[in-house]
Structures are given as structure tokens and as C-alpha cells.
Amino acid sequence: MRALVWHGTQDIRCDTVPDPQIEHERDAIIKVTACAICGSDLHLYDHFMPGMKSGDIMGHESMGEVVEVGRGINGALKKGDRIVVPFTIICGECDQCKRGFFSVCERSNRNKHLAAKAFGHTTAGLFGYTHLTGGYAGGQAEYLRVPFADKTHIKVPESLTDEQVLFLSDILPTGWQAAVQCEIEPTDTVAIWGAGPVGQMAIRSAVLLGAKQVVCIDRVPERLEMARAGGAITINFAEESVIARLNELTAGKGPEKCIDSVGMEAHATATLDSMYDRAKQAVMLESDRPHVLREMIYVCRPAGTLSIPGVYGGLIDKIPFGAVMNKGLTIRTGQTHVNRWTDDLVKRIDDGQIDPSFVITHRIGLEQGPEMYKTFRDKKDGCIKVVIRP
Amino acid sequence: MRYEGPQSRRRGHPDEATDTLARGLGWFSIGLGITELLAGKSLARGLGLTGQEDLIRAYGVREIGTGLGILASDDPTPWIWGRVAGDALDLATLASGLNNRNRQMDNLLIAIAAVAGVTAIDIICADTLSRETRKPLRPLADYQDRSGYPRGLESARGAARDFAVPKGFRTTDLLRPFAG
């Protein structure tokens, strides 16, 4: 089959690779009908995340048709079923899965010893996302093996198109969880850093959940325009002070809820801390650039909440934890517990509250994938979200 | 922030060739700086500048600082101009060795020619960066109709207020308004 394969830093190729096989009785194989490039794939593309190996197949936002099932599926899936595949692989049986904390499933990461070394304990296996999370082949391919497939799937109604449901795999529940973690009150201002795909979904989620005002911070004009279309007030951090503008919008008190949908590769400039991060990164002493975290901690209203769906990979430096402690801030973060939210979100899509396909700006075939990674990374051609039809 | 030029690699960044040149000069600065810092005595002896070892080491610190500045900033322009100023200092220092007593005149002339060449590259790089457009970016595409709400923005506001936040994700009671 054809697949997008990681070969090294900024080196992704469309290769011919062996077709996936059933390896375990709870596996299923799907024929991928649609998949997407995620912002967090760019952390792999730029090789900011450790644990990739040449030959790894990319992609963790996929959907398709079941073509083969293992003997242990027990009727949960059958050939011909149309499913979306959550990016977190879940067993559905461990203590964490039973509590709904699917992204920290205790059994699905087959390299749990590596994850435990890096993080203290294992987290869930993820598709196409480093050997720290299991080294599973990703879904930017013609076919995908889905481990624990009896639980790792989202069934979707035929009435909804692929493009309406594809983002149930990641960015919609990720933006939703980011907003849910804020437990938004009707009086709240929600500030969201980053107008990429997850930021866009977080804006829509905060609006749907009834925030008084939603503010989005970025510097790419077309992304800010899409954020405004979704009901956000926008701040271009290249043109004005984020802190001053957020205080102005909140009568000097700061936003109650802050969402970091940027993560480890913040592109802030002309600030002392961003200079510091870039200098450390230049001499390979730091992997993450936590400018957004510092800014959120500083501007958030005391007793407020910081919600962090943005991906961080390693150690971060110069975090003003004195402000966190003295202001009594609540920090909520984590990979998304996808299946915890998807039943509800499918209903909201079906009900017409939201149509996540608004974010798609580019539609391509697998062969164009390598070039599109570059276009997406460089924010060229108005690129915000790429959907691939293998 | 730098704005888009005709050959921009990334939106908001300088054109690719100049960007690569600037980063290269940054690494060159760091390499040269480390050499000057660690081998100041040998360099001074080799160039016939005996007695100026500490000055050469100080130049090494300057080079390392400038190099880090170039690599650490999104806009390396002022740092590259800083290199040009540093080149002038280097040339002046090397010129002080142009006298009949200098037994390392050949080495000195080679060094002056090399620094002059690097100065020319620095000036070209700094000048190109300075001439890049400063016009704010304009949207590359029109996304004004991409609300994502099939029923419109106003009907979307608060449409999901019925959602019951699960227990594990609720704000702690300690942070709720205190009524009693």
C-alpha cells in the first residue's frame, strides 16, 4: 500500500510499504477513506518530539471502512462498518479507561517501559506518534491496523459526510475537552492562544458552551479571520500587546479561562523570554518553547483556570510558578480522552450545532502529502487544515 | 517580526536564501568566538599581535554573543549589523599590526583579506534584510464565511449549555462563588 513515511527531520515521503495484517485477535484493518495532517504531526516533521524512527508511518486522524476483523472483536465491529479512529488507542478495560481517562490507558502502549521512563508512568498508545507511545503505524495510508479495535473506534451515522465526522478523531474533541476543562460560566472571558485547527475548535466549543466573550491570539491573518468568523475577538500578537489588550477586554482583571492550543513551538518574538528560549534551543539545551504558558500564567485572573491541549514534549524552563501558586490557578491538561466526548459531539454535529468541516482548506491525495506538510508547516497558501483522500 | 518577501520560506519570516545566510553567519560567529576565546594566545602570536591576547579573547566573547543573538532572534537584522561593526573593529585591530617589526606579515595579510571578505558578506546580508518589506501580511484566503455553525453564530452562542461537565473536569468547589 501507499503511505506517508517519516525518514528524518523534515523528510516525509510517500512510499510503498507492506499492507497491515491482523496481529492480535482484537485488531481490525480499515481501508482509509479520509485522513488529515494534524498540527502535532508538525512536531514530528520538525523532529521536536523524540522517539521517531525512519520508516514510521505518519498520521493519527483517520477514518474508513472496516475490511477485516480479528476473532476477538466479538461483534463490536463487522466488515463494511464505517468508523472514525480516535488517535488514542484504548483497551476499555483498565482502571483508567473505566474512569474515562482514555488517553492514559494503562494497556495500549506496547512500549510502556519507554513512556514510564520519560513520564514516570505509561500513557496510552497513539497512532503514528513516536515509539514513546507504542510506535504504532499511523493512518496517513491506504490501510490502517487498529489495535483494540472493539473499543478504539467511533461509529458514525451514514447521514453525515466523511468531512463532517473525520475530526472526531482528534481536533474537535481536543478543542472541546480544552473548553470543557474550563467549565465555562456565562460571565467568563475565555482567551485562546493559537488559531490553528485545535484553537479553531476550542473557539467554537467555548462559544457553544456559552462564554461571554472568546478572545483568540495569533499572528497569521487568515487564521485570525477564521477565528473572527467563529465569534472570537482577535489579537495579533505581532501588532499589539497581548497582556494589555486582554486586560483592556476584561476591565483590567484578566480572562478567567485561558487555553494554550500552541504548545511546544511558540513563535513569539521580541520578548525576553522568547529570545531566551530560542537561544537555549539553538544550542540544544531546550526542546520546548513555553512562551504561551508564561503569558497565560501572568495574565490569567486569580483563581482562574489554565487549560492546555497544546503538546509539550520535555522539560520547560523559567515557568513563573510563584504566580500560579499565589494566584491560585488551576491547571488542566492532557492528551484528549477522545471517546469520552464523541457520542455527545456526534449528536451536536447531527443536530447542526457545529460542522467541523469549516476548517478544511486543502484536499489532496497521498502523493501530494510530503509537499503539503511543508505548505502546512510554513503556513503558506492560506493552509489551516489538510484532508487527504488515499 | 519580519514580514513576507517574494521568496519567503515561512509567512512572517525573511526570504530563504538570506535567512540561511544569516543563520550560517550566526554559527560562524560562535565558532570563531570559541576559537578566539580558547586560542587567543596562539592567534596573537600567529598574527604578530603579541600583547593583544586579552583583546582577542574579548572579541571572542563578542562573537559568541552576536552569534547567539542571530540564532535566537526571529529578526537577525540588528545582530548582522552588529557583526559589521565588529568586523570594523577586527580590521582596525589587524591593521595595527601592519608595521615593519611584524614577522608574521603574511599571516596578517591573509587574515585581513579573510575578514574583508566576511565583512562584504555581512554587509550584503544586513543590507538585504534591511530592505525587506515591512508591510503587514494580508490574508492569503478569505475565510470570513467559515463560522462552522450551520445555524449561524448567534444561535450557536450557548447552544451547548445543556452539557453536563463530568465530575473529574469540574471546577473545584473551593473556587466557586462563596454564598454563605
UniProtKB/TrEMBL annotation, chain A:
<protein>
    <submittedName>
        <fullName>Glutathione-dependent formaldehyde dehydrogenase</fullName>
    </submittedName>
</protein>
<dbReference type="GO" id="GO:0016491">
    <property type="term" value="F:oxidoreductase activity"/>
</dbReference>
<dbReference type="InterPro" id="IPR002328">
    <property type="entry name" value="ADH_Zn_CS"/>
</dbReference>
<dbReference type="InterPro" id="IPR011032">
    <property type="entry name" value="GroES-like_sf"/>
</dbReference>
<dbReference type="InterPro" id="IPR013149">
    <property type="entry name" value="ADH-like_C"/>
</dbReference>
<keyword id="KW-0560">Oxidoreductase</keyword>
<feature type="domain" description="Alcohol dehydrogenase-like N-terminal">
    <location>
        <begin position="25"/>
        <end position="155"/>
    </location>
</feature>
<comment type="similarity">
    <text>Belongs to the zinc-containing alcohol dehydrogenase family.</text>
</comment>
<dbReference type="InterPro" id="IPR013154">
    <property type="entry name" value="ADH-like_N"/>
</dbReference>
<dbReference type="Pfam" id="PF00107">
    <property type="entry name" value="ADH_zinc_N"/>
</dbReference>
<dbReference type="InterPro" id="IPR036291">
    <property type="entry name" value="NAD(P)-bd_dom_sf"/>
</dbReference>
<dbReference type="Pfam" id="PF08240">
    <property type="entry name" value="ADH_N"/>
</dbReference>
<keyword id="KW-0479">Metal-binding</keyword>
<dbReference type="GO" id="GO:0008270">
    <property type="term" value="F:zinc ion binding"/>
</dbReference>
<keyword id="KW-0862">Zinc</keyword>
<feature type="domain" description="Alcohol dehydrogenase-like C-terminal">
    <location>
        <begin position="197"/>
        <end position="278"/>
    </location>
</feature>
From TrEMBL, chain B:
<protein>
    <submittedName>
        <fullName>Cyclase dehydrase</fullName>
    </submittedName>
</protein>
<keyword id="KW-0812">Transmembrane</keyword>
<keyword id="KW-1133">Transmembrane helix</keyword>
<feature type="transmembrane region" description="Helical">
    <location>
        <begin position="108"/>
        <end position="129"/>
    </location>
</feature>
<keyword id="KW-0472">Membrane</keyword>
